[in-house]
């Protein structure tokens, strides 16, 4: 399968709504154990993996820090490397 598996695909396979799949993934709202098991089973069978980039875009947060140095010969580089 070349295409990425989407929430819609998982929902259809589990026989639930897209909202229910989202609630299972985000641990939100009341869901029966049976529903959670159905969704997890569908995710496993379809090899579903959440899209991390989409999650970061939605939350507008990546929890990553970037450092930019002008050159490798920057006098502060050894200080940063040993920190």
Structural domain tally = 1
What is the distance, rounded to the nearest whole angstrom, between the alpha carbons of the first and last residues?
45 Å
The strand count comes to 0
Overall 3D geometry?
elongated
- CATH class group: Mainly Alpha
Unreliable segments of 5+ consecutive residues: none
CATH level 3 topology: 434 Repressor (Amino-terminal Domain)
The oligomeric status of these chains comes to single chain
Biggest sheet character: none
* CATH level-four homologous superfamily name: lambda repressor-like DNA-binding domains
CATH architecture: Orthogonal Bundle
Helix amount, in percent?
40-55%
Mean pLDDT: 85
Beta-strand percent range: under 5%
Radius of gyration: 20 Å
Structural class: mainly alpha
| Helix/strand order, N-terminal first | HHHHH
How many DSSP H or I helices?
A: 5
What features would you highlight for this structure?
83 residues, elongated, mainly alpha, 434 Repressor (Amino-terminal Domain), 5 helices
Characterise the protein shown here.
The structure is a single chain. The protein contains 5 helices and no strands. It has one domain (7-81): 434 Repressor (Amino-terminal Domain) (Orthogonal Bundle), CATH 1.10.260.40. With 83 residues, it is mainly alpha-helical. Helix 1 (7-14) packs across helix 2 and helix 1 (7-14) crosses helix 3. The longest helix has 14 residues, at 33-46.
